[in-house]
Amino acid sequence: MSLSVKHLLGIKELNVQDIEKIFRTADNFKQVLQRPIKKVPSLRDTTIANVFFENSTRTRISFELAEKRLSADTINFSASGSSVSKGETLVDTVNNILAMKVDMVVMRHSASGAPWFLARHIDASIVNAGDGTNEHPTQALLDAYSIREQLGTLSGKRIAIIGDIMHSRVALSNIFCLQKLGAEIMVAGPPTLIPKHIRDQGVKISYDVRKALEWAEVANVLRIQLERQSKPLFSTLREYALYYGINKSMLDGLQKEMIIMHPGPINRGVELSSDAADSGQSIILEQVQNGVAVRMAVLYLLSGKAESVEAG
Ligand code: CP
Fold first, then answer.
1. Is the dihedral of CA 111, 114, 115, 116 positive or negative?
2. Which one of 3.40.109.10, 1.20.1250.20, 3.40.50.1370, 3.30.160.390 gives the CATH number of domain 137-284?
């Protein structure tokens, strides 16, 4: 019942059996989350540190809730207000937390590769909650899980990933995960936000969002990450919204059912209008809901306690 990896650093390291095992376990935990008592004792004697060196709303709350639903003890660390400002290193910070008998570490960091670096220096299992512009594996798992829930399978499905591909860890993890599960991927957005190396990942590329929507069954729309742009890559947000933003009238014009996703946080009126984000085609809040079950599954399977699924 365990995974082929000790850590969840990136989707790249997972095999298809790992992903399917996570989904099956998440199916069980999703049933637990529908019950009046939404809790199992699976990680009763496990302590998990949520170590966030970068801001987060969804991922942090989702992991904390997943840990509580599994009966784990949790501690939360934020870089702001910590001794990081006094010059303490990442390894020293985490080793001090682990010295207090912590079993697993969930980490978000602004530096790409930080979880791989940490994995070489500590014994505890690490779950990457997003590293720089590299990977966000649990987001990709919950996205793929949510598509599977809607369409039954990923195999042969056409998924468009639209927006700021350049700065998005969600894009790369989604590409790895969806391709492993047999989906076809197109990335779309302005040429300045689509890195040349993405072609090597075997994806289709379009600079025309409307064409991408016509091709796809699912559109995963990404946030414009202005905070990661050292110099402007398009003239104004208004212009971005005009040429690359998705709104309800565009979706209605397609005259087909399609699923709209977004990992959050949304820049409403920029990459996605409110009438599209809140439409019946949007599964954005289902993604958030599924995130708890998927993260429960990841923590449980990495904990080494997955002898039997107690959710049944
Ligand atoms: N989707 C996501 O990673 O959101 P947060 O940055 O709020 O965690």
1. positive
2. 3.40.50.1370
